[in-house]
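pinging the channel bc i need a second pair of eyes. not urgent but kinda urgent?? the chain im working w is below, pasted from the shared doc
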Amino acid sequence: MTQVAQIDMTPVTVTPVFKYLDIEDVPQSEQKGYEVRKTIEVVEVHTAGSRNSVPVFPVDAMWKREGNRVITYAERWPEQYRAFKEGGPQNAVGTPLEMLRSYGITPEQISLCRVNKVYSIEALDSLSHDGIKALGVHANKLRDAARAFLTERKSGIDAASQIAELQAQIAKLRQQMAPEPIEEPTEEPADEIAAMSDEQIKAEIKALAGQAPRGTPSRETLEATLRDLRQAATETVAA
């Protein structure tokens, strides 16, 4: 149980490797009187910096318990287990060590890391004291390269975040400083009465006053009379 807890505390330095293992089925061998073998699924737990210690667990063994629920090793690393079942590559979590070549790290030094179960730049940066000792004379150069890579990447992420924040602030300022839209003056509606014919004006006057104009009043008189009648009618409705 202590070993399992240690694995959970340092996930970046732990790499699971799922595989098939051929073992003897002891109960069946004893029952049949000859050796009976079976194939089971297991996971090798590779801890960065630990060259010799490789714990092996059946995938359906209990990794830990949460209340009444048992969590297996297959559930502990579902993505890697799925890749194993589908026949795909089981990649270590983190950034590949090959990214350190531009920092002066040689293929031989990368191979040394893998021999010591260090499969990612993050794992290299997080090595324990014993893991650092396992890298021997190359430890300082490897660790310095890992730290430089991670520092530069963090700076790049921070810079991108700052740029995005500044762009958002500029967009907000531009929105605040934008001039308010100027309302276009609305054109006064054309004089409806002026567009009417004399007969139309007389007909509306008759409708409003009860009788048509007598005689032959001028155009100006007709328009003025209709306006007065409309105004009177509006005031009557409002009252």
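so Strands lie at 14-24, 37-47, 56-58, 62-66, 69-72. and The chain has three domains: 2-85, 97-153, 192-238. — does that match what u expected or am i reading it wrong
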